[in-house]
Amino acid sequence: MVEARKFVFISPDYGSSITENGCCGSGCCDFEAVVLTGNAKDITNAVKQRYGALAERSGKRGLEASENKASDRFYTEEQRSAITDETGGASTGSGNPVVLAGIKPGETVLDLGSGGGIDCFLAAREVGPAGRVIGVDMTPRMVSLARTNAKKLGTTNVVFKQGHIEQLPQDETTVDLVLSNGVIALSEWKHMVFSEMYRILKPGGRFVISDVVTTSPLPDTVRDSTGQWVECVGGAAIKGDYLATIEAAGFTDIEVLNESPGPEGHEKWRSSLRGLTISGCKPAA
Ligand SMILES: C[S@@+](CC[C@H](N)C(=O)[O-])C[C@H]1O[C@@H](n2cnc3c(N)ncnc32)[C@H](O)[C@@H]1O
Fold first, then answer.
1. Which CATH superfamily is domain 9-281 in?
2. pLDDT confidence of 21, banded at 50, 70, 90?
3. Closest ligand 1 atom, CA of 189?
């Protein structure tokens, strides 16, 4: 049974540790005065803090800032040589969706949770000057790092927008391909993310996303842990539910392109974690 949680944008009414504009107070972001109901204020702000701090470190220390060495694990040497060290340092995905996406010159590609921009820059080479790539990320310091990386690379066909993947800053039916890498597991409203993907895709458009899922329910202590959520673990959906949620959004031809072990660690429950790369289509009109 797919969990359907309430998703409404409301005026903030926070507890004492959250400031009026929805900021956690760490000074890492400029969270706007709209938030999600439920405990999103905790998860969202924790995610922004976690990845804002990583952006800061990557900007200063380049590849050394990388904890999980995602760029080493998932990308080819040729791909790694095409990005800056600061981009590689911020790379925290769970796969390599670009390599499986069959990107064509002239396409418009949107990357959900673009981080330091790794998949955007790799996609930009493939869409060429006639195409464009849009990266969306809610963490201001990540967006800022990605824009700096774009300047360093001299990339002119990529834009980075600050926004939430549950309410994308993109008009409907304007995108040929949606990418995402290690992001949707961080959202409490996965059904909203898939609906938004569907809304912005052109009829006949497609998605290729990498994400973390689980084959059996995670212990409550893991699901309730903000620390595990920000590592793409606590919010990992059960694989069957995840695929059903994609289907419920209207997608067809849903295919698991790659399945590998999920984020590593010593705990027994981790053996159920998987990194999946999945594709699907929005039916042609
Ligand atoms: C694990 S990192 C992956 C970044 C990038 N895709 C990569 O492969 O390196 C997750 C990124 O998604 C962003 N993010 C998480 N939840 C988001 C949301 N609800 N809306 C927009 N961005 C989000 C974070 O700010 C962070 O930059």
1. Vaccinia Virus protein VP39 (3.40.50.150)
2. very low
3. 19
